Amino acid sequence: MKKYIFLFLFLFALLISCSEEEAIEEAPKNVVEVGNPTIEKPQSNTPFIPSPPKEETPPEPDPNATERSLTTGLPCTPEAKVRRPIAVMYNNNKVSFPQDAISNADIVYECDAEGGVTRLMAIFSDWENLSSIGSVRSARDYFISISQSHGAIFVNAGGSPKAYEKLKGERVDYVDGVNMYTIPTNTFYRDSDRIKNNGYEHSMMTDGSRLMTAVKKLGYALKYRDGITTPYSFNQEFKENEGKTAVSVTLPHSSYITVRFQWDAASKKYLKYSFDQPHTDGLNSKQLAFENVVVLFVGEQVLDTEGRLKLDLTSGGNGYYISGGKYTEIKWTRKGDNAPFVLTENGEEISLNPGKTHITLFNKNQSKKVTIK
User: Fold this and answer.
1) Which pLDDT score, from 0 to 100, does residue 37 have?
2) Residue from 247, 243, 249 nearest 268 by CA
3) 3-state secondary structure 213-275
4) pLDDT of residue 304
5) What pTM does this model have?
């Protein structure tokens, strides 16, 4: 009899376990990497023509916007100014496109990853109402380092061993779609259309409401801590750059991906192109556009047989600040691993123009391949 009772209890526990896995909506368990990137070769090297941005009616000014955003320098309410941002890891190989909600990001960072691909981290200050975010991808330690300079809650789906050392060793506030079991089981989900059209590893999604529920359950602060110093200062109004002409900026990260920014004088923004195509948002089909483009040259070193990289984010170096159709040569410094970047020109800290910013960390050994025309 005891034998049958034991067998019954075992089958009952197995049934409960299967039900829990289904409730996670296909989110994988007990893995670090969701999978290796699928590498595709660019289809063509044919020059592309920038598409003009659609005319948009500017929103009515908010009478309560009496402060300035710490991530855009634009007018915002006092409540919005102290709202803590999230930093989302985005997949960025071609087969994973399009990316949902990325045009809503205040700041986008792009860094090299293993295999000749790049990965993106998007900083959102207004994120609670985003209807879809993703596809969310695995973390690297250097992205976590940058996110902490913004005081952000980090959002990822798995990560490298070095990334988990940093997340757990430094007690970073993060929400993980792969190795975290203290959040609601529906915080992340697999999009069935993306599974079919993009592949399983490019299908991990979430949204603002789900993240907010998880953040509250984890007990993370929703406001900036007192005395936080965010990385960048902003001009009160758009200021003309007095540097050299920068109508087109080309960043050849590898034979797989080249990124280009094209100046659009009508909107005073740089339009982004990746893989010889406009880089657009999957939710609204908007092409990514930035008032500021920053290129920082950093040291890169291959760490292991998987090709993972170590980025030197503390030794300082050179770079470019690009805005208003012009560019200037700058230098960057950083006082510590989680400290803000400090951008200077001729020894004086620079201020960015108010609006969205794209920041590329580019291999300094390949800096001569960057072209600005």
Assistant:
1) 36
2) 247
3) HHHHHHCCCCECCCCCCCCCCECCCCCCCCCEECCEEEEECCCCCEEEEEEECCCCEEEEEEC
4) 86
5) 0.85
